[in-house]
Amino acid sequence: MDVDEENKTITINGEVISPGQNSLVRIGISRLPTGTLIDIPVHVFNGKKAGPTVLVQAGLHGDEINGVETLRRMLQENAFNIKKGAVIVVPILNIFGFIHFSRDVPDGKDVNRSFPGTRAGSLASRIAHTYTSEILPQVDFGIDLHTGGSQRHNFPQIRYSAEDAKSKELAEVFNAPFHFASRQINGSFRKTTFKMGIPTIVFEAGESMRFDENSIQKGMEGIQNVMGEFGMISKKGLAKQKPSIHLNHTRWIRAPRAGMFVPEVDNGKLVTKGQILGLVTDTYAKKNKKIKAPFEGYVFCINNQAVVNQGDALFHIGSLNTK
Ligand SMILES: [Zn+2]
Q1: How far does residue 136's CA lie from ligand 1's centre (Å)?
Q2: Ligand 1 centroid to residue 208 C-alpha, Å
Q3: pTM for this one?
Q4: Please, which residues have CB less than 5 A from ligand 1, an ion?
Q5: Across-strand partners of 254?
Q6: What is the second-level CATH architecture of the domain 247-319?
Q7: How far away, in angstroms, is 147 Cα from ligand 1 center?
Q8: Residue 43 CA to ligand 1 centre (angstroms)
Q9: Which residues make up the CATH 3.40.630.10 domain(s) of the chain?
Q10: Closest by alpha carbon to 246, among 150, 167, 171?
Q11: 323 C-alpha to center of ligand 1: Å?
């Protein structure tokens, strides 16, 4: 894909990282009530040669730890030893949520609904503001790692913005098992980067508070595919993968009644129209409600919650057709 080739220094928190230099910068955010400083560690890898700057981040939702492990492994393996361009790696954006096992910051606000943020706003808004002003102006492309919320397990998938053709190209380069367009949510990181002209993709893989090896592997491969495409690393060593499947139409299948939910399909699998996806039962062996696939498509999210209420989202399925 077309990119600006420009040799640049990166400045974060007043620290200047020149081409050919790497650095770990800590952006001070706030303090715990005990006075302990909370800062966001930011790894900067600035290649010798000119190229784009890619931001790779995880833990914007503090309980979505798959991405944290994905980036930790890549740092451990020196995967960001790049020849050109620059990579900014933020393994945990929402430190508060991470240490509280929570999606949000302590006042219950979601940082991913608080972008671009304000200097004197709520804690979530201040974190977003610091990030938007310190980091985003220097970024050409963004990769944001997430998992399903609560106990919803996402099969590795990329979401891009239909309004932004470059984000779709980036989704294709990343080559997760699935990719599809999804609506930009107000206050989200992705909407803010879109407004700033930074093509961004969201990688959704696994579920919160749980490691999922396949999701971690697909995340690592995808990030390497993007770095390979931009000439930052050699394409030679990259894993051979099946081409990503583009889903044109997606739909949530919800619980028809309250009860115990027993899924009967594996995540990521192709299902036929009318195929039984799972059951919602009462606890007395009296009532059994079968859940059927409304169309042929791929299951790409399954809720692992065992006890559900009517209307709970159970399966997310996507079709190759537009309807
Ligand atoms: Zn998330």
Answers
A1: 19
A2: 8
A3: 0.96
A4: 61, 64, 146
A5: 313
A6: Beta Barrel (2.40)
A7: 6
A8: 21
A9: 10-229
A10: 171
A11: 27
CATH topology (fold) of 10-229: Aminopeptidase (3.40.630)
Residue 199 Cα, ligand 1 centroid: separation in angstroms? 18
Q: Tell me the residue type at 213.
A: E
Which residues are within 8 A (CB) of 280 and not within 5 positions of it... i.e. 6 or more apart? 255, 256, 257, 258, 259, 260, 261, 262, 289, 291, 308, 314
- Distance from the alpha carbon of residue 204 to the mean position of ligand 1, in angstroms: 8
- As a whole number of Å, the CA-based R_g of the chain is 20
- All CATH 2.40.50.100 domain ranges in the chain, comma separated: 247-319
Whether the Cβ atoms of residue 300 and residue 178 lie closer than 8 Å to each other:
yes
Q: Which amino acid is at 80?
A: F
Ligand 1 centroid to 8 CA: how many Å?
31
How far, in Å, is the centroid of ligand 1 from the Cα of 226? 21
Ligand 1 mean position, distance from CA 304 (Å): 17
Distance, CA 62 to ligand 1 centroid (Å)? 8
323, with CB counted inside 10 A (0-12, 13-18, 19+), is exposed
Spacing, Cα 46 to ligand 1 middle (Å)? 28
Going from the Cα of 149 to the center of ligand 1, the distance in angstroms, rounded, reads: 6
Taking only the tens of pLDDT, the chain with its 323 residues reads: 777 666 789 999 999 999 999 999 999 999 999 999 999 999 999 999 999 999 999 999 999 999 999 999 999 999 999 999 999 999 999 999 999 999 999 999 999 999 999 999 999 999 999 999 999 999 999 999 999 999 999 999 999 999 999 999 999 999 999 999 999 999 999 999 999 999 999 999 999 999 999 999 999 999 999 999 999 999 988 888 899 999 999 999 999 999 999 999 999 999 999 999 999 999 998 989 999 999 999 999 999 999 999 999 999 999 998 87
